[in-house]
């Protein structure tokens, strides 16, 4: 008789995701593996010709309560938790006629696809956690991706089993966090026990710099996410690409009802424009700041066509993302093999999820910012009331400014940014940067407007704005020197709108 190829003798199998399960178990069963399984998994395996022992045969107790109770039984968990080398545990298993499990395969009900009380898995997390706790003597698998590696190796080292166990605890943690988030519902702001659980999407080449390790995770329970985008071509996405893509997409989502193109560089928009046709929006966004867009990210809220692709292929970009990309556009992009081209139909859908940021020893949580999408009657107008076309530009600049790194200033005209100043440690510098870009790239401006993400602390910025020939300002107000700022606006004969709400991005 030939020696066993695989070390596994007794397995517990209960999977929601049955991808590759039969192909994985068939050679193990041929090598003598005993398989204990439940419900739909047992049926799936039997239909594929594999011999299966029902859980009820293992426990001597039928499944009850419509399947709510099946693996929650001492004869399951004794076989999972028995310790290697423990005479007492071995004696107990013999007394009850139980063979210890040395392989467990399981993953959890897809609660996110049909959230309800009945889709909350109880037995699954329990047997997975028991198995992972006992990784020193057994192998536990929750991700079908690991099947190939295990078949190739035949047996795993202690370190490899420990890594699989860690994956299980991550899996169950993400699952619990998703359910907790669902239960909290609209009261989530008052919910103190935020869980950061996620599922691994892919390892990244490196982080912000080559010496940093990085990985990409998706939040379980989210109905939309960047991981759903299809990568049509190009190099592997980097950590920085994903950060920039998020900034570009967030800005695109700020606008609906119009074709918008957003160019992002180093996590801040550098060019934003509306156009009647796709190619017009793309052309105007690039022309907003043709220098900064080099090596940047482009996101749009419309289907990219041939004319748009021809414009974009004429400059060096890291990535292009759109809800849809025509075949003709894809044929143009294919000539630039390193360009990452992504298609995501759900790009324009705004999620309602929390925003997280790590700090030393923990993390911060906040709700997404809500930027005003329409002109408000509650806004205070200082000076002559602007006509409607100017109101539209002020609102456009205001919404763009809300997505720039603070301190932030946006100069715009006719649905196009002319100059953006962001990430400055004082507001005067942000004003001067934005004006300098306007003068450099748009010297023939007619009636530009300017937006500030937070109040002007002093009147010096108003002087710079007047010197640049800008007549219209929008800002939140709220400075202790508001009266001084307003006085200067009146002296210069400008119009200033006070919104009463700031939009910092740190």
* Total domain count: 3
Helix content: 25-40%
Query: What is the average per-residue confidence, as pLDDT, rounded to a whole number?
Result: 88
How much β-strand is present in the residues? 15-25%
Strands, helices and their partners?
Blueprint: E1 10-15, H1 21-30, E2 34-37, H2 39-47, E3 53-54, H3 55-59, H4 74-81, H5 87-96, E4 103-107, H6 123-133, E5 139-141, H7 147-153, H8 158-184, E6 198-204, E7 214-219, E8 230-233, H9 239-252, E9 259-265, E10 268-275, H10 278-288, E11 296-300, E12 303-304, H11 306-312, E13 317-322, E14 324-325, H12 327-333, E15 340-343, E16 355-359, E17 362-366, E18 380-382, H13 388-401, E19 409-413, E20 416-421, H14 427-441, E21 449-452, H15 460-467, E22 472-475, H16 482-492, E23 495-498
Parallel strand pairs: 1-2, 1-4, 2-3, 4-5, 11-13, 12-14, 13-15, 21-22, 22-23
Antiparallel strand pairs: 6-7, 8-15, 9-10, 9-11, 16-17, 18-23, 19-20, 19-21
